[in-house]
Design a protein that fits this description.
alpha+beta, Ribosomal Protein S8, Chain: A, domain 1, Smr_dom, Smr_dom_sf, five-stranded mixed sheet
Length: 189
């Protein structure tokens, strides 16, 4: 099978050259001094975002040593929480789903240190984005190596410490039930 030769740049047939001249007409190249050659925009280094991101203060505490959960796990985390000065009606509305869930965080598979940091960052970002209602999925602790719902108790304990958390309760069954907390955040004013 014989291949047909491909045309190389610079090998223009007389017909193509005439067609090109007819299309271009009397157009002439710009003088060298009138040419503007756009410069590519300087590239941002990829690490700039991480460097300029403000540090989030570490405000959440375990209340126990990171390696020893037994003392903390014996105490039940409150099933629901309401900040001082708020009406029980607020908690009732939260349970009924009067506020739509605007974002969620899944803490499954994280150890307590990682979960605490993730929760702290999530709450910080949620308040920056002016979210009012978020879902924190901590699980029921059914597969926990520490025995019991340690992460559930810790997450709920941390939520009571955060200054922007007005209250929380178990999520609706469709959103995780007792394996997740529906969290109401303060409105930015």
């Amino acid at each position: 099978m014989k291949k047909t030769p491909t045309s190389k740049p610079g090998n223009i047939s007389p017909d193509d050259a005439a067609l090109f001249r007819a299309a271009v007409g009397t157009v002439q190249p710009l003088p060298e001094q009138s040419r503007i050659i756009p410069q590519p925009a300087p590239r941002k280094p990829l690490f700039v975002q991480a460097v300029t991101k403000p540090a989030i203060p570490d405000t959440l505490s375990d209340g126990c040593a990171a390696q020893n959960f037994s003392d903390f796990a014996d105490h039940d985390a409150p099933e629901e929480y309401l900040s001082d000065g708020l009406s029980r009606m607020t908690l009732r509305k939260l349970k009924r789903g009067n506020w739509p869930i605007q974002d969620s965080l899944d803490l499954h598979g994280n150890n307590s240190d990682a979960a605490r940091k993730l929760l702290q960052e999530f709450l910080h970002e949620a308040t920056q984005r002016e979210l009012r209602c978020v879902l924190v999925i901590h699980g029921k602790g059914l597969n926990s190596r520490e025995g019991g719902a340690v992460l559930r108790k810790l997450a709920r304990h941390w939520l009571t410490q955060h200054t922007r958390v007005l209250g929380y309760c178990d999520a609706q069954p469709k959103d995780g039930g007792s394996g997740a907390a529906l969290v109401l955040l303060k409105a930015n004013r």
